Amino acid sequence: MNKNCFANKNNRCKILNDIQCANNSCSFFKTEEEQEESINRANARIASLDKAVQKSISDTYYNGKMPWLEGDK
Asked: Which domain of life is it from (predicted)?
């Protein structure tokens, strides 16, 4: 497993069920920085949606919280 992958925890993948990626060639590989940027892009996209849609996403996936909005982390 690639030691620079955001999902590497004690040399095991914390995202996938596989213990290790074959030959360090995981198609889900991202660095910590790439993962953070991906989350930021997703949060920006959700924040751009209509408030009713944001509320639905919040209720369905975040127990009513809206972490994509400033101050609600």
From this structure: Bacteria
Three-state SS string over 2-71 comes to: CCCCCCEECCEECCCCCCCCHHHCCCCCCCHHHHHHHHHHHHHHHHCCCHHHHHHHHHHHCCCCCCCCCC
For the segment 26-62, what is each residue's pLDDT rounded down to a tens digit?
Answer: 888 899 999 999 999 999 999 999 999 999 999 999 9
Angle between helices 51-61 and 32-47 in degrees, nearest 10: 130
Residues 6+ apart with CB under 8 A from 31: 4, 5, 6
The domain locations on the chain are 1-30, 32-72
